[in-house]
Design brief:
This protein has three domains: 362 residues, ADP-ribosylglycohydrolase fold, CATH 1.10.4080; 105 residues, Immunoglobulin-like, CATH 2.60.40; 139 residues, Jelly Rolls (Sandwich), CATH 2.60.120. With 652 residues, it is α+β, with helices and mostly antiparallel strands. Helix 3 packs across helix 4, helix 9 crosses helix 10 and helix 13 packs across helix 15. Strands 13, 15, 16, 17, 18 and 20 form a six-stranded antiparallel sheet that branches. A hairpin with a 5-residue loop joins strand 16 and strand 17. It is globular. It is 34% helix and 23% strand. It is built from 18 helices and 20 strands.
Length: 652
Amino acid sequence: MRCKCSGWVSWYALYHVMFACAWLSSVSLCAQQSIVFNEAEFADKVYACWLGKAIGGTLGMPFEGKRQMHNLSFYEPIPKEPVPNDDLDLQLLWLKALEERGPKITAHDLAEYWLKYVVVNWNEYGVCKANLRLGLLPPLSGHYKNKWRDSNGAWIRSEIWACMFPGLPALAAKYAFEDACVDHGVAEGTYAEVFTATLQSAAFVESDKHKLLSIALSYIPKDCGVARSIKVAIDSWRKGLDWKTARERVVEASKDTGWFMAPQNVAFVVLGWLYGDDDFGKSICTAVNCGDDTDCTGATLGALLGIINGTKGIPKKWREPISEEIRNIAIGGFEPPKTITELTERVVRMAKVMLKEHNAPVSIVPDVPTTQNASSKLKLVDEGVAKELWSRTPFQIVFKFGRIEAVLDLHGEPDVEPEMEREITLSLNGVGGERALVKVEWHFDGVDVKPKVASVRLPAKLKVSLSIGSTITSEVIRGKAVLTDETAKVLGVIPITLFGKLTTHKENFALSKYGVVATSDSELDWEKGCTAKVNDGVIAGEKDFEGKRWHSALTPHPHWVQLTLPEVRTLGRIIIHFADPRGHPVDFDGEVSIDGQTWKKIFSIRGYTNTRRFECAIEPIPIKHFKLVIYKSASKQWVNAAQVSEIELLPK
């Protein structure tokens, strides 16, 4: 399995360099007046952004995850250095990606950096990395079987996009979406990062809280949970309620997603800001005092206040206990910036590149005064961009191959079942009205595709029918669409990954419905009757094995499970499906018999590493009994346990 996974990632890495979303360049900038940031003043705001983030994160870290309210007015305990925080770590990684890949970076690029450099597997981080390794591309990588897609992992890392696009929230929104969708799909976690990125971007040119909140809310769906909870915080402040009452109202408004999720925690950031009376310390303490994901709420509000007020707005007493050092916890394999000063210098340098690439009406220039009333000269609300962002679903994957944009739409979850018919859509558009002729050829393992080959002239929308066979023998079904031009030159390759519900082969004669009886040496006390699971035709999934397996007692190895046929059959192939991958058989033998007394060994395996299944072809032999004897299993916690999901016996 490791080799297959590695090969897929390599294939993915080979082709991802051709992926780019054309809509990154679709923001309307030409109607805006040009403004200038004095480079020193801009750098001061960027420095204060990272400093405020370090202060707020350090303040909140000791209280992370606690649901009760707090009563902080300063650090508890007083630190000697800033704490390491993934809120900043991933932004250091995105800076590396921007420096190496350039301004038109997309979710596909960020996905590769996830796999190479993110060293932790917390919550949505782990889910997205696992999905990427299986071959799911963003935004599906952040959606599929991800119970954390409404959580906090994305909005806590939005400052990088604000700093790249100061005063340009529409562009910040698009990059924030590309970032967040990798591990949050199209859900509350993604809405939250778009909100914070646009809020922080606009804060470079606007300081009025209510104008900023209105701008940021315009970029997320009006009825989403993040918007609803934020509006409750605003309403509470306007009604003159105290912050504790406001906090309880936010908790109530957020109960459908609950604790450690984006709607509640982003609203706590807003609550701290509104009730902080423009005081840096009071603001971040109020946010942290709301509880829940306190390092994130404190850090994000600290960064926002840094952008608005610069270093002069961060009191000395908050700065002195921490140093300039940046410490890491979630990334590895490269050298990130070591200090806030180094980070600031690199961000400012990259921001200039980003603004130039997008022909933005914003420039960063030394020795020139910053434009006054800059907010009135820029388009801070862009309804077109907002509408475009939220028209996408987690099942639409965007590619660009040169001057051709392709959108693959699965129209639903990537799960398939035997004998299923489903339709997918491939839309092809030529950038700038390109009318090229493109040939599309589909390649799929175990799936009948109609039409398998089609030649179309751009723009085109292909409806493709997928027919799943009666037997699914692999949990992961891979396919691809190869695009070629009139000269047969490959323009691009679109990978597709589906997940099948495993079934036994039609030729399998080991099923209990044919009168085959399963016996074993023992069963786990609380799974009595589980021996019958080895030939009931139900194959356990990698994470769905409870109640779908035979599990031995916890007595010492060896353990065995046996199938007795009602009549003699010819055996030519054996397939053994495992259950919990952490406890798969490592050392095991297969034996057959005619009379149940005299046994012949047909395979002997030692040091087996495949966690999902074992398959063995043999010279055809008549049998009436088959026995699997397990001498060692992989589990280090339950060393005496043996378990198997299903045994298939086939004639060839």
